[in-house]
């Protein structure tokens, strides 16, 4: 009888998710024109050596927190592409001042760069609401 593989736990994400998640993340941060410090901050400031290894190899085994952050970034990117069919406009929206309540006159990127995963959630939720997903 074949042995069953243990189910992944929240503390141990599936290792095969790391490479695709990181490749998608770096493609998005490049489309957004983020500097290394900004892109690293969105992931919760992983150690520099880890960051540069991930960036060079476009592969790795990020932990649950990093994968959660990447998931929010993917959702934000997707929502922007739906709301703004012009990719240039969609990518530029992040840096534009925004008077909507969650941003208080700052940009969505300013909010996202606070370092808190909750702020990624707020931006994603705002965009999902704008496109009618609540």
UniProtKB/TrEMBL annotation:
GO terms for molecular function: DNA binding. Residues 14-74 form the Antitoxin Xre-like helix-turn-helix domain. Residues 79-132 form the Antitoxin Xre/MbcA/ParS-like toxin-binding domain. Pfam families: Xre-like-HTH, Xre_MbcA_ParS_C. InterPro entries: Xre-like_HTH, Xre/MbcA/ParS-like_toxin-bd. Transmembrane segments: none annotated. This is DUF2384 domain-containing protein. It comes from Arenimonas caeni.
């Amino acid at each position: 009888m074949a042995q069953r593989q243990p189910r992944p736990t929240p503390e141990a994400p599936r290792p095969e998710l790391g490479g695709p998640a990181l490749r998608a993340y770096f493609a998005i941060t490049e489309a957004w024109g983020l500097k290394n410090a900004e892109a690293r901050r969105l992931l919760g400031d992983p150690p520099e050596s880890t960051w540069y290894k991930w960036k060079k190899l476009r592969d790795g085994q990020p932990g649950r927190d990093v994968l959660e952050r990447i998931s929010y970034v993917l959702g934000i990117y997707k929502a922007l592409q739906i709301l703004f069919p012009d990719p240039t406009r969609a990518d530029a929206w992040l840096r534009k001042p925004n008077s909507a309540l969650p941003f208080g006159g700052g940009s969505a990127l300013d909010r996202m760069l606070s370092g808190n995963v909750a702020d990624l959630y707020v931006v994603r939720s705002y965009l999902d609401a704008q496109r009618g997903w609540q």
